[in-house]
């Protein structure tokens, strides 16, 4: 049985991070929206902390900013951190019954993020290419999945592992209800 965490995305953290990264780039909201391929009104809502960001929108902004996804969703953490399943900051896809929750952001000096992903059978979660050199490592923990770069998807069952270049389009599709996987994003 899949449990869906009730918590939504951390809006205040996301709003501050988007403003910080936009200002670091020295561009306007309109320019960031244009580069990310999102509506200016959507970006304005996100920067105001009133939007409802999707995984796709946040990835697009992260790619434009040249930062890991975690830089947009993760507040500063203490050295000891526990993430309770029901308290994960879940961010849902607009395209599929897919949810991503960042478990561990990339620490200083490293270039990786750790996520848990859940998905239900139905539409695939199509992911655009991430920053050049990005690699994804996925371990299926529940249910069967079809995962990988477009045209090279593989089927995974519980305990199976796949690694693939994520700097090209790729998809995640649940083949069984309650599919859960551990995803490590490695940035180079």
TrEMBL record:
<dbReference type="InterPro" id="IPR010982">
    <property type="entry name" value="Lambda_DNA-bd_dom_sf"/>
</dbReference>
<keyword id="KW-0238">DNA-binding</keyword>
<dbReference type="InterPro" id="IPR050807">
    <property type="entry name" value="TransReg_Diox_bact_type"/>
</dbReference>
<dbReference type="InterPro" id="IPR014710">
    <property type="entry name" value="RmlC-like_jellyroll"/>
</dbReference>
<dbReference type="InterPro" id="IPR013096">
    <property type="entry name" value="Cupin_2"/>
</dbReference>
<dbReference type="InterPro" id="IPR001387">
    <property type="entry name" value="Cro/C1-type_HTH"/>
</dbReference>
<dbReference type="Pfam" id="PF01381">
    <property type="entry name" value="HTH_3"/>
</dbReference>
<dbReference type="InterPro" id="IPR011051">
    <property type="entry name" value="RmlC_Cupin_sf"/>
</dbReference>
<feature type="domain" description="HTH cro/C1-type">
    <location>
        <begin position="18"/>
        <end position="72"/>
    </location>
</feature>
<protein>
    <submittedName>
        <fullName>XRE family transcriptional regulator</fullName>
    </submittedName>
</protein>
<dbReference type="Pfam" id="PF07883">
    <property type="entry name" value="Cupin_2"/>
</dbReference>
């Amino acid at each position: 049985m899949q449990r869906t965490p009730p918590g939504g995305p951390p809006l205040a953290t996301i709003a501050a991070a988007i403003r910080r990264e936009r200002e670091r780039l020295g561009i306007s909201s309109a320019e960031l929206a244009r580069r990310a391929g999102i509506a200016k009104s959507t970006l304005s809502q996100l920067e105001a902390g009133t939007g409802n960001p999707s995984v796709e929108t946040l990835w697009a902004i992260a790619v434009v900013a040249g930062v890991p996804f975690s830089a947009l969703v993760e507040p500063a953490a203490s050295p000891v951190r526990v993430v309770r399943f029901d308290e994960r900051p879940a961010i849902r896809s607009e395209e599929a019954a897919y949810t991503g929750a960042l478990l561990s952001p990339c620490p200083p000096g490293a270039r990786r993020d750790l996520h848990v992903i859940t998905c239900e059978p139905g539409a695939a979660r199509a992911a655009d290419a991430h920053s050049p050199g990005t690699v994804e490592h996925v371990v299926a923990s529940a249910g069967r999945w079809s995962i990988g770069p477009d045209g090279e998807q593989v089927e995974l069952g519980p305990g199976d592992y796949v690694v693939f270049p994520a700097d090209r389009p790729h998809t995640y599709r649940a083949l069984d209800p309650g599919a859960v996987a551990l995803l490590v994003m490695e940035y180079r």
